[in-house]
Amino acid sequence: MNCSEKDITELMHNYLDEDISEEEEKVLREHLQTCESCQQHFHELKKTIALVQSTSHISAPSDFTLKVMQNLPKEKRTVSFRRWFREHPMLTAASLFLVLMAGSLFSVWSESDEFSVSKQPNLIVENNTVIVPEGETISGDVVVRNGKIVIEGAVDGNVTVINGEKYMAAAGNVTGEIKEVNQIFEWLWYHMKKIGTDVIHVFDHEDEEK
Amino acid sequence: MIPAMSGGSKMETIIKNRIRQIKNGDQSAFAEIVEFYKDKVFQISYRMLGNRHEAEDIAQEAFIRAYVNIHSYDMNKKFSTWLYRIATNLSIDRIRKKKPDYYLDAEIAGSDGLTMYSQVAADAALPEDELETMELQEQIQAEILKLPEKYRSVIVLKYIEEFSLKEIGEILDLPIGTVKTRIHRGREALRNQLRHV
User: Fold this and answer.
1) How far apart are alpha carbons A163 and A180 in whole angstroms?
2) Looking at the predicted structure, is the pLDDT value of residue A19 above 90?
3) Residue A82: partners with Cβ closer than 8 Å, 6 or more residues away
4) Nearest residue in chain A measured CA to CA from B61
């Protein structure tokens, strides 16, 4: 064989890679027309490519994606929560509201068996009985739970009695409202109103800050 | 069937949005990515390894690695290239590791004289007409598997996955000149093996 076969083979590959200049292509064509063994070689290369390309495409097994997803490392909990919130904004708002409401009511409910009274320095406490002494003026609201209140002096604010009784002496004086709460329903209602007033207070504060 | 090529930029945008979600920790967005690329990735590992079980193993592993390392993926580059690179590298690693321990005539542990030959023969019970095309396909696959792994990967990427030389260079992290040389040698080797088919 006379042809410098190595160079010609190189040209064949460049041709197959579509990486050949017009000039080189011309050289290749002319050579192939005259050299039978190179023609054979070129033909075999093209046939090889066709054979390799003829291998049919295959697909991944049908449960492939599921398997991958099952084997991924666990994502952080916060993320799945966050996604859930994003997908259900109304439910999120509603459940958040319920949780907060229930939480605040139950926390107050659970402490409601014990005797308690709001702390003011000049109140006198005797055996679950709170006395507003004669001649004294209590400033601020007075709240008594599970006990009695005897008002002989003056209260500059509201008086609330939960599950208890109040005695008002003739000289007693309360500038604000006096409320007795004895039923659970009333008690609940009282708290709802209280939350309402608190919220309004918060907004008032914000307005003031502005 | 060949999403990365026919999908165009719209598809790339969707994929990139999903990746952003994954980077923010949203695992469920990854399912779409897997669904979209699974056939391609499986095909690469299958042509490289020639065995469905191993190919599935490697393809699964490739997706899990992609997920775990998603933060190292550069959003300015093509995601498919990055993913195929993981799959190709894993396949090459597997080829290098498995060489010594896969003999057809080795006895299967605890099977009392049963060899891989009898297993293969049992698996290959197919209807006559399918047999002939299967035989040619299998012969071609077998010849691809005979190629040294560095030629095999370029041939698989070029002729089965139809990537350009430039893309192959990116996937395998090789200069174009090297890709060309390997394709030339791989083609010559295959020509020698397939010329009498």
Assistant:
1) 8
2) no
3) none
4) A68
B157 close to A (CB below 8 A):
no
Mean pLDDT score of chain A: 80
Closest CA of chain A from B113, distance in Å: 31
Rounded to 5, what percent of chain A is helix, strand, coil?
55, 15, 30
* Cross-strand pairs, A36: none
Using CB atoms and an 8 Å cut-off, which of residues 117-156 of chain B contact chain A?
A: 136-137, 140-141, 144, 155
Unique residue bearing structure tokens 């010329």: B195
Q: What is the pTM of this model?
A: 0.57
Chain B residue nearest residue A80, CA to CA: B26
Q: What is the pLDDT of residues A81-140, one digit of tens each?
A: 677 777 777 887 888 888 888 777 766 655 556 777 777 777 888 877 888 888 888 888
Query: Is the ipTM reported for this complex over the cut 0.90?
Result: no
- DSSP tag of B107: B
Nearest-Cα residue of chain B relative to residue A66: B31
- C-alpha span between A89 and A78 (Å, rounded): 16
Q: Which of residues 156-185 of A touch B (CB under 8 A)?
A: none
**Distance from CA of residue A174 to its chain's centroid?**
47
DSSP state of A16: H
Q: What is the DSSP string of B34-58?
A: HHHHHHHHHHHHHHHH--HHHHHHH
Give me the residue from A47, A55, A72 closest to B137, CB to CB.
A55
pLDDT in tens, B3-54: 444 446 788 888 999 999 998 888 889 999 999 999 999 999 999 998 899 9
Q: Please check whether residue A209 touches B, CB under 8 A.
A: no
